[in-house]
What does this fold into?
Amino acid sequence: MSNQERTNQETGRRLVEWFTRNGRDLPWRRDYEPYHVWISEIMLQQTQMERGVAYFSRWIDRFTTPCDIAHASEEEILNHWEGLGYYSRAMNIQKTARILCERYDGRIPDDPEVLRSLPGIGPYTAAAIASIAYNRPVPVVDANVERVLARLFDIDTPPKQVDTARRITELAASLMPQDQARDFNQAVMELGALVCLPKKPRCSACPVMDRCRAYELDIVFERPVPRKAAAYIPIEVATGVLIHDGRIFIQKRPASGVWANLWEFPGGSVEEGETAAQALEREYVEETEFHLADIMPITTIRHGYTKYRVSLHCFYCGLNGSSSTPVLHAAQEYLWVRPEHLGEYAFPAGHRKLIEQIRESPEFTRRLKQK
Ligand code: SF4
It folds into this structure.
């Protein structure tokens, strides 16, 4: 073993020791049950820890094994996921659960290659499950690991660049004590989450400060090197809460594509030269063949969705005409629901925010009472 390899191994052991004393007490860390590790890894993608823990506990209470997920209705799966966004993750969990139940007796495989063949499990998640659940010596690289290693080793190219990504994975492997993959991988991620923070790193509390090249050179804030910022695409969307005879119209989106199988209020993109209200009227005709009356603005909700920055213009509306039976062109089914039942259906985040805003509104109540 070279001096550098010895130093790296010693750094890795220090990180593990630090993690043993400072790692957060998280539900899936109590027994490292592979099923729990899998669900936590999927849930925590794009989700804050505190929020992820709450969703995790509710999920595990309801679905105690992968086979419980496999046998649940899609509606129930989406309801337990609602609010976390990126709903394809929930659908992939159910697809994987069905495979696990049918082919693996409900057990989670420990081989990263096999894990990668399952729906919704990419290289990162496969490595995380194999190492955290089974202590297999596979390095895990997420944004926290990239930042810690870019600083420790003064890496001067963006971590997502192919050759840099490879180098970071190799460095992680060289630091990892072979018999402590579980604790080592979590140690680096935890250091990134608690100490080696992007904007305010707490270097004085860092167990490897004396090994950190970026700290030594006083260039901590220059590492990692950022990649070119992604350009966000602004889009304007209109949607309308159609109320008739004390009920609200909702429709279920198609089984594939964006927000598959979620419920929504009809609407769509505002086209050039249109106002949001005009877009709403057009979209209702195109999607349901309903003509609208009594349109009134409610609010504009802004939210992000992948590379889009959406301005969702929300309206109340009523029916112009006597028939309340739509002809569906953009949905698989529809319902006229009472307001107290809206919570039983899974909606995309923007529509859920809208429901929260109107729930107590006098105008909403007035329209529901209107005959
Ligand atoms: Fe990160 Fe500071 Fe530790 Fe370097 S010394 S790894 S910058 S926390």
Summary: The chain has a mean pLDDT of 95. The chain has two domains: 3-222, 233-369.
